[in-house]
From TrEMBL:
It comes from the Eukaryota. It comes from Eragrostis curvula. Keywords: DNA-binding, Nucleus, Transcription, Transcription regulation. Pfam families: HTH_70 (PF23671), Myb_DNA-binding (PF00249). The lineage of its organism: Eukaryota, Viridiplantae, Streptophyta, Embryophyta, Tracheophyta. This is Uncharacterized protein. Transmembrane segments: none annotated. One of its GO terms (molecular function) is DNA binding. The keyword Nucleus applies. Residues 144-199 form the HTH myb-type domain.
Length: 354
DNA sequence: TTCATGCTGTGAACCTGAAG
DNA sequence: CTTCAGGTTCACAGCATGAA
């Protein structure tokens, strides 16, 4: 672990890397556009395969899935910039999305993400649990908790990937295709705790598996222990608890999960690489660092449809909701899903890597 | 078209174990 | 000892599907 890098930043992609990737993507996209006609599916697939190969060649130290992942993120970011500006691409023409990479979307109904909390009525549920309810199990007959197993960091990252591809609510597919070691019920349960954790971000006191972001390295052990304490960084790293006490501004927790999951939606790519960061209450989500990868969601601002920055947990949640609306309105979510789905089909390694 | 059934997601209660 | 985090389970609601 490089001591210079904030722990929430995995150090895998630096801004210059991303700039190079963008440049290469734009260059090869434009170059191939002159050769490949619209609707040429094989050509499009080959095109993206070629671009990934070029990127892989440029960054031989990276795993292929890392390259693919970043490629998708950058494409989505560019797409979002195009959507926002309405006048054209930020970095040259890129038509990777509008035609679904030249491939049909296998299941358009996939865009069923319902991120709006409260969209489904819960009235009548709340009074369900009755007072004086007898214990679920007699003390002597409590079921064995043999299935209890803490989520590993890897499982959580797979969960985040699945969340990014299938969206919130499709636990079945996330379980089936990503977190294969967990049932859909377990995934759902984990998600419940995960989102609750995000909502109560300001009150966090202990490290949790849910603090692991998709691109985070693993600077910690699975539990609070001295095992990861030595990794605490001077000035802006972790403290022994993994969280800052409210009022302490000298240490910065890594709480970028949702930011990464929804980075193309929540973060304004055009403002990436600034040193501004979003905050939850007293705690900073995205640690401002000069060397922050744009797509990490660590340096970009939280943006909602009206470009408002979150400054309180409630505002943050509201922004998330508005961002979801924005995504729905502009079909960004569907486009992103399409990207991943296409990648999953075009590049076999993708499935193997995730 | 209507109804029954099964599946799945959601929110909450409850439990265990670890940290404070 | 208290508080907190994580996991399981349950009740309910919504949706899809098939039969009448």
């Amino acid at each position: 672990m490089a001591a210079q890098v904030a722990p929430m930043i995995n150090g895998e992609w630096c801004p210059s890397d991303i700039a190079v990737m963008k440049s290469l993507i734009v260059k090869h996209n434009n170059m191939n556009n002159t050769i490949i006609g619209a609707g040429d599916n094989d050509g499009m697939n080959s095109k993206h395969q070629d671009i990934v190969d070029v990127l892989q060649a440029r960054f031989p130290m990276k795993e292929k899935h890392q390259v693919i992942d970043m490629y998708v993120d950058i494409v989505v970011e560019m797409m979002q910039c195009q959507e926002k500006s309405g006048t054209g691409p930020m970095m040259g023409g890129i038509d990777l999305v509008n035609d679904n990479f030249g491939m049909p979307v296998e299941d358009p109904s996939m865009n069923n993400m319902d991120m709006i909390p409260g969209a489904r009525t819960t009235e009548g549920k709340r009074a369900r649990k009755t007072v004086g309810k007898p214990p679920r199990w007699p003390l002597a007959a409590q079921p064995e908790r043999h299935n209890t197993r803490f989520w590993s960091t890897e499982e959580h990252k797979l969960f985040l990937r699945g969340l990014r591809v299938y969206g919130r609510g499709d636990w079945k597919n996330i379980s089936r295709h990503f977190v294969k070691t967990r049932t859909s019920v377990q995934v759902s349960s984990h998600a419940q705790k995960y989102f609750r954790r995000l909502e109560s971000a300001a009150a966090r006191q202990r490290y949790s598996i849910n603090d692991v972001g998709l691109y985070d390295a693993e600077p910690w052990m699975a539990r609070n222990s001295a095992g990861w304490e030595p990794l605490a960084l001077a000035g802006g790293g972790y403290n022994a608890n993994g969280y800052v006490t409210r009022g302490q501004a000298s240490t910065q927790p890594a709480m970028n999960n949702l930011a990464q999951v929804w980075s193309p939606v929540l973060y304004n790519g055009s403002q990436a690489n600034t040193s501004q960061a979003a905050w939850i209450g007293d705690q900073q989500i995205g640690h401002a660092e000069a060397a922050t990868p744009a797509m990490e969601g660590t340096s970009g601002n939280f943006v909602s449809g009206d470009q408002q920055e979150a400054s309180t947990p409630q505002q943050w949640m509201n922004n998330m909701q508005r961002s979801t609306q924005l995504k729905n309105d502009e079909d960004l979510g569907e486009a992103q899903e399409s990207l991943f789905r296409v990648f999953a089909r075009v590049i076999p390694e993708f499935e193997a890597c995730i």
